[in-house]
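Reviewer comment 2.1 asked that we show a complete input and output for one of the modelled complexes. We chose the magnesium ion case, as it is the one discussed in the main text.
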Amino acid sequence: MGLAVGDALGLPAEGLTAARQKRLFGTLSSHRLFLGRGMVSDDTEHACMTVLAYLEACKDGHGNGHGDVQKFARALGKQLKHWFLLLPPGVGMATARACIRLLLGFSQARSGVFSAGNGPAMRAPVLGALDLDLEGIIQFNRASTRVTHSDPKAEWGALAIALATRHLARAQTPVFFPAYLAELTPHLPLEAQDFETLLEQVRSSLERSESLANFTSRVSGPNGISGYILHTVPACLHAAFSHPDDYPQAIQNIIACGGDTDTTAAIVGGLVGARVGKAGIPQPWLAGLMDFPRDVRYLEALANASPRTKPIFWWPVQLFRNLFLLFVILFHGFRRMFPPY
Ligand SMILES: [Mg+2]
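Response of the prediction step:
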């Protein structure tokens, strides 16, 4: 729910610079996608598919918090194929190519394309929120990443998010970024040195109480946070660890940075949401999420699901909904051609 609400709040501003976003929307503190309501994008759909694939992996004797990783990868590949056939309006380039490869008959072991986009990071918060041990998270994250992305950077970035979710859900107040880093770095390979340098920059920036806006413009440049996983992940960690107990503030700060706002806010929403729970999400933000079939009730049912009782919906509903969202997104694209610039 934390991830979905962040996704929906960030979606209207996707791709805008911080300055243009401010002129068009002011502070994004309420849903602005369609008549004051919010809808979710691929980020939430990926998170839901990850949970469904995990439930599939826990069937047949794998029900003790440790599903079968192979089964998980197969189920995720299948979910992605069905999802892609229903024409999702927002889909990353690498994920689209991986879905086409899956549809052409590539196995989920060979479907991933060499890219360090954000797809795996969208699926990472829910993995970190599962009742898995560290080794389990590493295995499932690797499988989740490789279905769509084969660049190891994508796996490191997603692992950083999954372990941060786990850390934030469990750590006592005050949350301490170096304690999280000490958990993560032993699981990063030697080649991940550049990534570790970025994480060090997050640490020193937090230590100096530098603003998120300053930090991201240093790391990602002035046009907002890009969809490159090594831009997105440090920014999201910075946002979440700056306000680990304040969901609305963390979300507003990351959206205000501009760029890939639906994904960055979704990840931050997943990170902080795992800590504060449903009660920490402002009630109007939950009530304003008017999507279907993935509404708040569905998300709640999914969170409480077991391998035998999964929430389902009829696929034509999803197709109709995707066409509607496409129409809304086109309207936003058209609106952006007009002032204020
Ligand atoms: Mg998205």
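The first helix runs from residue 2 to 10. We note this here for comparison with the apo prediction described in Section 3.2.
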